[in-house]
Write a structure and sequence with these properties.
single chain; about 100 residues; mainly alpha; Helix Hairpins; elongated
Length: about 100
């Protein structure tokens, strides 16, 4: 009886979410902050898949939401990395505290 229940998925998802929140609030490096946002989005994806599996196993709504979130996260990461590269070219740093203005 080594069945993995819903509580196990929720525990992993909760841990990922709070690690992401901690990383976002305590780090000043933009790339680390971007990785923290990705952790938060992945914890949401785990929740969607887990609730879909245990509450509505015959529907694919959770899977479709997860694919949509992964698509949005990929676009968000591409835009964020472009902004980070532009800031590094202009200011020679990606530290949030040192970059106080965004100019075009």
């Amino acid at each position: 009886m080594n069945d993995i229940g819903l509580i196990h998925f929720l525990f992993v998802s909760c841990a990922l979410f709070f690690i992401g929140i901690y990383g976002f609030l305590t780090r000043r490096n933009m790339i680390t902050m971007l990785m923290s946002v990705e952790l938060i989005l992945n914890s949401v994806n785990i929740n969607f898949i887990a609730f879909n599996k245990y509450l509505f196993p015959h529907k694919l709504d959770g899977l479709f939401f997860t694919i949509f979130i992964i698509t949005i996260a990929a676009a968000e990461a591409a835009v964020a990395i472009a902004i980070i590269i532009n800031l590094y070219r202009n200011h020679r740093t990606i530290d949030v505290e040192e970059v106080d203005s965004m100019k075009y």
